[in-house]
What we know:
There is one protein chain. The protein is of the alpha/beta class. It has a single domain (2-506), classed as FAD/NAD(P)-binding domain (3-Layer(bba) Sandwich). The protein is built from twelve helices and 20 strands. Strands 5, 6, 12, 13, 14, 15, 18 and 19 form an eight-stranded antiparallel β-sheet that branches. It has a six-stranded parallel β-sheet with strand order 1-7-4-3-11-20. The chain is globular, with a radius of gyration of 22 Å. It binds flavin-adenine dinucleotide (FAD). Flavin-adenine dinucleotide binds at residues 21-27, 44-47, 74-75, 77-78, 81-83, 85-90, 190-191, 226-228, 231, 235, 340, 442-443, 475-476, 486-488, 491. The site of flavin-adenine dinucleotide (FAD) has 40 residues, from helix 1, strand 5, strand 8, helix 8 and helix 12.
Amino acid sequence: MHIDARTLDNGTLIEGDLCIIGAGAAGISIALEWMGSPRKVILLEGGGFNVEMQMQALYHGESVDRPYYPLQSAVLHYFGGTTGHWAGYCSPFDPIDFEKRDWVPHSGWPITRPQLDPFYARANKILELGPYEYDAAYWERQDPDVRRLPLDGRAFYPKMWQFSPPTRMGNVYRDPIVNAPNVHLYTYANVVEIVPNNGVTAIESLRAKTIDGKEHRVRARHYVAACGAIHNARLLLASNSRATRGLGNGNDLVGRFFMEHFEIIAAQTVFETAQPFKLYTLPGAGPTRARAEMALTGERQRQHRILNGTASFQGGPLTGKEQSRFAWFSDDAEANVKERQAQRPGANRSPAPQTVYRMFTRQEQAPNPESRIMLSPEKDQMGMPRANLHWRFTKLDKRSIRVFYQLLGQEMGRAGLGRVQLMDWLLDGDDDAWPNILSGGWHHMGTARMHEDPKQGVVDRNCKVHGLANLFVAGAAVYPTGGAVNPTLTLVALALRLADHLKNRVLV
Length: 508
Ligand SMILES: Cc1cc2nc3c(=O)[nH]c(=O)nc-3n(C[C@H](O)[C@H](O)[C@H](O)COP(=O)(O)OP(=O)(O)OC[C@H]3O[C@@H](n4cnc5c(N)ncnc54)[C@H](O)[C@@H]3O)c2cc1C
């Protein structure tokens, strides 16, 4: 059922069992799981069914410390959320991503990769991916031309990606959601405050505003904040009428540990002879679109005390004209969104075997409490403080990229395949200095991290906010570390896990 919140009388009270705030990848995944249940689900979406610049303007904010994509176009504010222009790259996190690594401060998830595996398999279907197969050996068996480079598998291995069409969740799942009798989707319902009880032990209601000035109340037994990592933090921090530091923020953790993936050209590889490259180029291996990136095993990461990262091959040598993607974007949110929506995975890649490739790094960022989302003194049209981004790095971030390519160079030489030339910025002797060719992946993670100890995390292993009986967080905000790969498959898996938890344990 669909209701446009602008058509309701001012001050309407909306009541249900489960209330999900935000209809993006995480929120829609939970709603899909709850379809057909005897419980009433309220799905509140701030935007409508299409991108509107007036709604995007609510997301305007400053990137205070360093360049970043304009925040009003880096995430989308309408039904389907940022899947309205995501690129569809998917791969599960590695087992080491969940471990406590003594060389990565604040690392360690309270859950393991095997615990998430069944949910990954279900998430694969929601994102319209192929079989839940991410072992390169499976893809090699499908096609004799698909072969890995002959490197020592104890050091480097081909980490597989699959490519979603990309699923625009707002298009694909609109009818099922709107036609589900127990799911009540309210569009143009912007939650501006999550209101706790007097003792701040549970949530009592929500305040939801429409762009034309109405305000409604929403009451449910349980609430899930699924607004994306920037706006989950913003909403928790701005919900400060009874908890002065914001909800879940008794230990000053909400908004901290913001993480992205470093995406940057870092080296070039020169092969003695052209190698079979089908495994590493798009569309890759058979009917399902899949391809590998070069990755360092967990064992070698442990040995060299570095972060997890991968490298993909881009045909042709370094030109000296490499650019950051940040430079492509203007403050014109409409143009930015159109450009992204036109992009498809694999565009501009050359599958022809060559001998020289530029190496494109995708690497996790070490969790850093100083890297954070904070409220701005400036307010949006709804009267909500805007979100500002303070994106900050550590020395381990840059050192890890350098060591990765040094090891790759050693291994290419040992195998007699060729050599690797690192770019100057990796060898400048200053691990606090970053070149202006740095980009991020539009991957926002870590602002409401998961930890069993309330002093170290905002949510527990079930994504419940510590200290609040009925408030949960869905999305990459809960990641304690960001892994090397794109975040959406993992956040959908976690959302499905949360949907099951709520069904089986909380709302029975
Ligand atoms: C250009 C681009 C390319 C990308 N490519 C990839 C990729 O290849 N692979 C990958 O894994 N990831 C990719 N991503 C990231 C991916 O889009 C996100 O990880 C994913 O959409 C996050 O899901 P989410 O549900 O947490 O947030 P979102 O999808 O952003 O959804 C949040 C929803 O909450 C709503 N909302 C927010 N605040 C409120 C409020 N106060 N009240 C009511 N509703 C609210 C929003 O309108 C939105 O619908 C890309 C992102 C961009 C921008």
